[in-house]
Design a protein that fits this description.
By secondary structure, the chain is an all-alpha fold. 80% of the residues lie in helices and 0% in strands. The protein is globular, with a radius of gyration of 20 Å.
Length: 399
């Protein structure tokens, strides 16, 4: 059997950890920063933070085309460099307007970078271990999610300094750029720059898989961005955000290790289905226990983190592999950008609508909406998406 953990794959995973560490060390604290530093209201916070995801969404289709049409190493280096530099913009932004502009523009290189880095990871994997390798690649994201928010919250409580957090994000991102600069890629034939079609920007053959991911992106968009304020203002749980993300990531890591066998055997729809069901239970517990059994709120709060992590850890690599397996080899970048575009649409809608619902109705309503949207996503998969994938699957070794 070909070697999975080759040096280039390990480097790409380390760089991916760096990029997501820089992202997650700030994510749970930005709503508090906007509220305390600029006096922003809940709906304004949602509007400001959604700009990042909307810009990332706009850049995804073009980044997929660029990765498939130009030397991937060069595209990767430019995207990572731009992503890193933008963290310095947070330090320079002295007004809410300036912060909004910097945060919104920062989504562009983030969107392009996640596509290019994940596509390079696929390139350096041996073909016989690719399905399994894509699943393990996500561990670097999960490890960053486990560590970064906890460290961010700890440093903020210790120093009461957001500037220090921005500096940490900048340094870690630059370290990731340096690691990726040492990755060695084989020279491959690239698609002609002039053959333009919709399928070079968005994988039309995978549109329903993408639609399904929108629902799950919506749920995580609300959860990740409003968890700290919801816990503090509604549940009375202060300082629990870092622990929540750590438990969520423990679930993600366990699910990747547990689901590795199913991925090796090509049971993608099994992994996707089981992951979605577990996530649905987690989201329901998260909002239902505080509403109907307040005395068990801490148990429901932290228990849901583990379940949501377990569910997403099974679901994500399965959906990514499903999208890649309905695409031809010269459309790997487009396939990756398609699944990330779908996630971004959901995240953006979750951040924006979650803030609006929380402002006008309340956080309970926002998170009940999350449980409802997640349930719709599960129903869509079993009623339509599963058969949609099986009809278009180009790889007979997966199902």
């Amino acid at each position: 059997m070909e070697k999975l953990w080759n040096k280039n794959y390990c480097k790409v995973m380390a760089a991916n950890f760096s990029l997501f560490f820089a992202f997650y060390v700030l994510t749970p604290l930005l709503p508090l920063y906007l509220s305390e530093h600029f006096g922003a209201t809940k709906d304004v916070i949602g509007l400001v933070l959604s700009g990042y995801t909307i810009t990332a969404l706009f850049f995804r289709p073009f980044s997929g085309y660029l990765v498939d049409s130009f030397p991937r190493k060069k595209v990767l280096m430019v995207c990572f460099g731009a992503f890193s530099i933008f963290f310095a913009g947070y330090l320079a932004a002295g007004t809410l307007l300036m912060f909004t502009i910097v945060r919104t523009l920062h989504g562009g290189p983030f969107g392009a970078l996640t596509v290019s880095n994940s596509t390079v990871a696929i390139d350096v994997l041996p073909s016989s271990r690719r399905t399994e390798g894509i699943g393990y690649y996500g561990l670097s994201n999960n490890l960053a999610m486990a560590i970064a928010p906890t460290i961010g919250v700890f440093i903020y409580k210790l120093t009461d300094s957001f500037d220090l957090l921005f500096w940490i994000a900048l340094v870690v991102a630059c370290a990731g750029w340096l690691i990726d600069s040492t990755v060695e890629l084989e020279r491959k034939e690239i698609t002609s720059h002039f053959k333009l079609s919709w399928d070079r920007f968005f994988l039309l053959k995978g549109w329903l898989i993408g639609m399904n991911m929108v629902a799950f992106g919506f749920c995580f968009g609300v959860l990740s961005n409003y968890l700290a304020i919801y816990g503090k203002e509604v549940l009375g749980i202060t300082g629990g955000t870092g622990t929540y993300f750590m438990l969520c990531s423990v679930g993600l890591i366990l699910s990747r290790l547990q689901g590795g066998k199913a991925l090796r055997e090509g049971r993608l729809t099994f992994n996707a289905g089981s992951g979605m069901a577990i996530s649905l239970i987690g989201y329901t517990i998260f909002i239902a226990i505080p509403a109907f059994a307040p005395v068990l709120t801490p148990l429901g709060y932290y228990g849901s983190a583990l379940l949501i992590g377990l569910g997403n850890g099974h679901m994500w690599p399965a959906f990514q592999n499903m999208t890649i397996n309905v695409a031809h080899n010269n459309q790997r970048g487009t396939a990756n950008s398609t699944i990330l575009i779908s996630w971004d649409i959901g995240m953006g809608l979750g951040i924006l609508l979650g803030g609006i619902i929380a402002e006008h109705i309340g956080y309970h309503a926002a998170f009940w909406t999350v449980a409802g949207v997640n349930a719709l996503g599960v129903a869509l998969f079993f009623l339509r998406t599963k058969s949609f994938f099986l009809r278009r699957n180009l790889n007979s070794s997966v199902r």
